[in-house]
Amino acid sequence: MEDHLHRCLAAPVKLASLLVIPLLLVGCSSEPSTAEAANQQPATAQVRVVRAQIIPFERVVQATGSLLADEQADVGARVAGRLESFSVDIGHCVEKGDVLARIDSQELQFRVQQAEAALVQAEARLGIQRGANPGSIKPEDTAVAKQARAVLEEARMSRERTAELFRQGIVSRADMDAVVAEHNVADARYQESIEEVLNRRAVVVQRRSELSIARQDLADAQVRAPFGGCVQQRSANVGEYLNEGAPVVNLVRMDPLRLRLQVTERDAAAVKIGQKLTFRVEGDANAYPAVVKRISPAITAEGRVVFVEAEVKNQAGLRPGSFARADIVTSVDAKALAIPEQTIVTFAGVDKVRVAAEGKAVERDIELGRRRNGMVEVLSGLTEQDAVIADPKRVDIGQPVEATTR
To answer: What is the pTM of this model?
Structure first.
């Protein structure tokens, strides 16, 4: 019985021994040998390197702003009246002088007819034909003046005869005074006739001016475009009564456009009239050229910026009001240290490159500036002697490298 108990107790011990031995063997086999550790070192990679080099690099000032219409106006009715019809709608483009809308013109036509009748009456009283120059009429040659002159001549002769009889003592002093008074009255009436003719001549000029105004009002019943552009907004409705000057449409001139930029106070001194620039607008990858035309003489108190304007030939359908980013070329002879764009690695907003130094790939932080034609200006972090790895994604940091320029 005791032998059977000893055999039962010894069985688990032997089983545990059998389990421990393989575990020890596995643990021992997981330790690498010295030769295997040497084989696991990173392999040397052949990499192509490029040198950071100083190249011609235009110096630019970056600015933001907006595209504005060179001309924009609320075109209004020049005469009061009821809006009869529109000839355009939002988005329609027109030329200078095109009809935009019409005002009811019936009353204006009546005014023209009234002015024409008044002119005919005035010309008849002056005794000239329709359209004749009233200034060519001499007052003394008119019928009114001739009649007054005839009366004056008769009074003059009567005065002379009476004066002779008075010297002979045939007529009294009272008779002589009466004849002299009649002559003076006739002379005054002649002068009055001359003034009447001058007044009638002025009335003809006035009636002609009134007719011209009435005709102009009739023409102004058609609201016309003061310049070529496109309709941005309609400000009235058909059937609405408009006062004189009330806006009808908002017209925007589309070509040329005005690019207004805000240049910081620090960069303003470098910007000059005549400098070239390129700009881009939101939603458009194309770059458009322009030239600086105007520079504000003052710096704004809010924002500390200087306003710079350029004229833009709008051949690409650019829209006024678009947000724009511009690069103003302030120096075409400037140079800068630059590297190819594809050598740069950006992580978490930090720009880096990998260089071949002492046989290894070393990572360096750099500060970048302008970009031109695939090249990027390096402001700090590199020198001309540094060998920049052309394809930084092919190597790891610290990996042995063999540099080649091919």
So the answer is: 0.57
Q: Which amino acid, 376? A: V
State pLDDT tens for residues 343-365. 898 888 899 999 988 888 889 99
Distance CA 376, CA 339 (A): 6
Alpha-carbon dihedral 212, 213, 215, 220, rounded to 10 degrees = 140
pLDDT band at 17 (very low <50, low <70, confident <90, very high): very low
* Range 271-289 burial, b when 16+ CB lie within 10 A, else e: beeebbbebbbeeeeeebe
> Which residues are CB-neighbours of 44 under 8 A, at least 6 positions away?
399, 400, 401, 402
Give the model confidence (pLDDT) of 122-157 as tens digits.
Answer: 988 888 888 888 877 788 888 888 888 999 999 999
Strands 335-340 and 345-347: unpaired
Centroid of chain to Cα 313: 11
Average pLDDT over residues 6-30: 41
Crossing angle, helix 143-167 and helix 173-220, to 10 degrees?
Answer: 170
Structure tokens at 190: 């002649």
b/e map 177-189, b = 16+ CB within 10 Å: eebeebbeebbeb
Please give the Cα distance from 30 to 13 (Å, whole number).
26
Distance CA 139, CA 20 (A): 146
